[in-house]
Amino acid sequence: MTGQFFIYVLFGALLLLIIIFRVLEPSYLLLFNKPLYIHWYPFSKKLKLNQRQVLLKEFPFYNRLSPKRKMYFEHRVKGFIENYQFIGNEIVITDQMRMLIAGTYVMLTFGMRNYLVGLLDKIIIYPSSYYSTVNQEYHKGEFNPRMKTIVFSWEDFLLGHSTSNDNINLGLHEFSHVLHFYCLKSNDPSAIIFFDEFNEVIKYYTDKNLNIELQQKGYFRRYAFENQFEFLSVVLEHFFETPPIFKATHPELYRHVAKMINFKDEY
Question: pLDDT tens digits for 34-68?
């Protein structure tokens, strides 16, 4: 009987905490424009030593993190790999591929609570640029929300990953589309913040004067001005690849982007 009573008390306390949290977080969100918490993993997932070595070698972002945040990053990388299906088309999927793709996505979404999204099921990889039956053109990458699929040319993914100062990163670019679609449809705290700040970011595309100023300074490549979706993706590529130049050239836009993905400078 005592054990049963303890379970009831524990369950009641947990239920009370959930109710308090649901009442408290909206107020916290309004006051501080950030979720009440981002990382909480009672059972943290661990990477193998060789997988951790890939992160150490390939991701300066990971190397800058504190030991505690490194654990969070690794947990999310493993969660990503376990959650999504990797499919090779005329190419064999390797652990290195999984780690580089997962690490790129986790880097982009590290400041957001819900990083695993239902808009994505499959990651298809081709050796190089491939013919898309959607629009009868050759592509380097694409996100198809209807099919819940993201596609990469591995040759171009690697080129974007290894060249860190040209503001062209195929992985960041396509995953930005995934994040954009998800946050337009979700109402979790991170998505709400993303959407609010996105409305400020996109003004630099829709407002004539701001748009002219951006184009005159020439920091963003021409493809940014194709449409709103590409504008966001190109802006995020620049944000991660050349942040000091971005911050110096367009400080207000940089600030909105950082808030949009809850990015902290200590990352």
Answer: 787 899 898 999 999 999 999 999 999 999 999 99
Kindly provide the b/e burial profile for residues 213-236, where b requires at least 16 CB atoms within 10 angstroms of the residue's own CB. ebeeeebbeeebeeeeebbbbbbb
First to last CA, the chain: 50
Q: What is the pLDDT of residues 183-217, one digit of tens each?
A: 988 888 899 999 999 999 999 999 999 999 999 99
- 3-state class (DSSP) for residue 105: helix
The whole-model pTM stands at 0.90
Q: Give the 3-state secondary structure of residue 150.
A: strand
Report how far apart, in Å, the C-alpha atoms of 36 and of each of 10, 23, 73, 181 are: 23, 11, 19, 23
Round to whole Å and give the CA distance between 27 and 260.
18
Contacts 24+ apart (CB under 8 A), 212-218: 214/250, 214/253, 217/249, 217/250
Q: Could you tell me which of 110, 108, 113 has the C-alpha nearest to residue 35?
A: 113
Radius of gyration of the chain (CA): 20
Q: In the chain, where do the E strands start and end?
A: 85-88, 122-126, 130-132, 137-139, 141-144, 149-153
Residue of 135, 258, 267, 263 whose CA lies nearest to 197: 258
